[in-house]
Write a structure and sequence with these properties.
The structure is a single chain. The protein is mostly helical. It has helices at 20-32, 36-62, 69-73, 84-90, 93-124, 129-144, 147-157, 164-170, 186-213, 218-226, 231-259, 263-268, 280-290, 294-325, and strands spanning 65-66, 79-80. Belongs to the binding-protein-dependent transport system permease family.
Length: 326
């Protein structure tokens, strides 16, 4: 009688489960995605490249050329001037004045917009639901109003001859605001322009931060109140840190939007902004289409895009960080 020794059994922990390879393949496919997402997004990417990429490339090419009306409507080819347009920009004092004015306006308008938007969002959390809905509807109307229409309305309000604002201020005892021109003084003129931009920007900030405030735990706020924390301490030590990622996103977006200010200045100055009201966007437009120097105007536009690239990179970095956390 012989004894047949059976091979040692494989530990259960090391034994491959039926279909384990297929499961790993499915998990790898779900995480990596393969080529399917790229294939699905390719049409949209090609459309965006055609709509946004071509004008950008064309603008960069024009910035290295001398292109005027003769070359635009005649048969003359544009002259390649290399970096001459950029040298002309960086060697004029006007460029630095316009850049400083654009940055100053952006800083002031963004700070005012974010602070007032946060205040409105906090107010929305304290009012009754019906009032909150009414506030959201009112701000949606403001948000949906075209910039051209809103700017024209503000222009009528501050008109020197028929403006309602001058009439109301003139009613104050000892104040003479009859036929007062708000744009004769650049400081007063920029106050009007900044008011228009801030008024239009508050709804986006307030509605977005109101949604973010719903994520602040009520238990945390109640515990802070029980511990004797004031409203300012609760806002500074609890609410703002929780809203910090959202605040960074809306602030960065506001910087990008306000840095490209054009419509408000162009409308209130009747399409002819004086030197005191020029910002980078209006300056590039005036040089290109008023002076018919399209090459130099394109160079100013390219410099504007380059100045914004840092802000755009910061915005994308924040978006990817939020995506990683999610």
């Amino acid at each position: 009688m012989s004894v047949v020794e059976s091979p040692p059994a494989r530990p259960a922990s090391q034994a491959p489960a039926p279909g384990d390879g297929r499961a790993r393949g499915r998990r790898r496919s779900a995480t990596s995605g393969g080529y399917a997402p790229l294939a699905l997004t390719l049409p949209a990417l090609l459309l965006l490249a055609g709509l946004l990429g071509y004008p950008l490339v064309r603008m960069v090419v024009l910035s290295f050329q001398s292109l005027g009306l003769r070359q635009l409507f005649g048969d003359l080819p544009p002259d390649n001037v290399g970096f001459a347009n950029y040298v002309k920009i960086f060697t004029t004092d006007t460029f630095y004045q316009v850049v400083a004015r654009t940055i100053a306006f952006t800083v002031v308008s963004v700070v005012l917009t974010v602070v007032l938007g946060l205040a409105v969002a906090l107010l929305m959390r304290r009012v009754a639901p019906s009032v909150r809905i009414a506030m959201i509807i009112a701000m949606m109307f403001v948000w949906a109003m075209p910039q051209l229409v809103a700017t024209q309305i503000f222009r009528w309000l501050v008109d020197s001859d028929f403006g309602v604002l001058n009439y109301l201020i003139d009613l104050l005892p000892g104040v003479d605001f009859a036929n007062h021109s708000w744009f004769a003084d650049p400081i007063q003129g920029w106050i009007v322009i900044t008011t228009i931009v801030v008024w239009a920007g508050i709804p986006f900030i307030a509605i977005t931060l109101n949604a973010g405030l719903t994520q602040v735990p009520k238990e945390l706020l109640e515990a802070a109140t029980v511990d004797g924390a004031s409203a300012w301490q609760t806002l500074r030590l609890i609410t703002v840190p929780i809203l910090k990622p959202l605040l960074i996103i809306v602030t960065t977006l506001s910087v990008i939007w306000n840095f490209g200010l054009f419509t408000q200045v162009y409308v209130v100055r009747n399409g002819r902004p004086e030197d005191e009201y020029q910002v980078l966007a209006t300056w590039a437009y005036s040089i290109a289409f008023k002076n018919n120097n399209y090459g130099l105007g394109s160079a100013i536009a390219v410099v504007t895009v380059l100045l914004l690239l840092g802000v755009m990179a910061f915005y994308l970095r924040q978006m990817f960080k939020i995506g990683d956390v999610d």
